[in-house]
Amino acid sequence: MGDRAVIVVADKNGHSPGAYVHWSGSRVVELLKGAIPGMRCGDYSYSLARLVGHLHMEISGDNLGLGVYAGPVDLKPRTLEEYSPGDAGVLVYHCGTGRLNCYGGYLEDEYPNGLDLAVPPG
After folding, report:
1. What are the two backbone dihedrals, phi and then psi, of residue 66, each rounded to the nearest 5 degrees?
2. Do residues 102 and 108 make contact, with C-beta atoms less than 8 angstroms apart?
3. Does residue 26 carry a pLDDT above 90?
4. Does residue 27 fall inside a structural domain?
5. Is residue 80 part of a domain?
6. What is the pLDDT of residue 105?
7. How far apart are alpha carbons 116 and 95 in whole angstroms?
8. 3-class state of residue 77 by DSSP
9. Strand, coil or helix: what is 67?
10. What pLDDT is attached to residue 60?
11. Structural domain that includes position 88
12. Number of domains making up the chain
């Protein structure tokens, strides 16, 4: 099956498509943390591009390891639970505040109150 997760990057203006990882759900939070220094504060599209580049460099394996999904319609919890691929679920990282919330997977149970991560450079 895999250990799937989708990361959506958001800011006050909207949100990105999802960066999908097939085998890296258990380490997706650490992968996201590693990408944050290359992201741009408050710019979800630029931040998603840097995230995908980082994931591409860090994830080994075949061509099933990384993809980009059409984004969710909105960021409401019910929508995100339906958008989830299962396994680790959906992570929504707000690149303006550093806030990370998890939905629809085991990371939601692990981080029920979310996490406060670093804010990308301006």
Report:
1. -150, 135
2. yes
3. yes
4. yes
5. yes
6. 98
7. 11
8. helix
9. strand
10. 79
11. 10-97
12. 1
Cβ neighbors of 2 (< 8 A, separation 6 or more) are: 22, 23, 25, 64, 87
Strands 89-94 and 5-11: parallel
DSSP-derived letter for residue 36 is: G
Give the global pTM. 0.96
Average pLDDT, the chain: 96
Token pair of 100, please? Answer: 């990370």
Work out the average pLDDT over 37-56.
98
Residue 113 is assigned to a structural domain of this protein: no
Query: Which pLDDT score, from 0 to 100, does residue 63 have?
Result: 75
What is the distance of C-alpha 33 from the center of its chain? 10
In a domain, 46, yes or no: yes
> Mean of the pLDDT values across residues 102-112?
98
List, in sequence order, every residue forming a beta bridge with 66; answer none if it has no partner. Answer: 21
| 5-19 CB burial, b ≥16 within 10 A, e <16 | bbbbbbbeeebbbbb
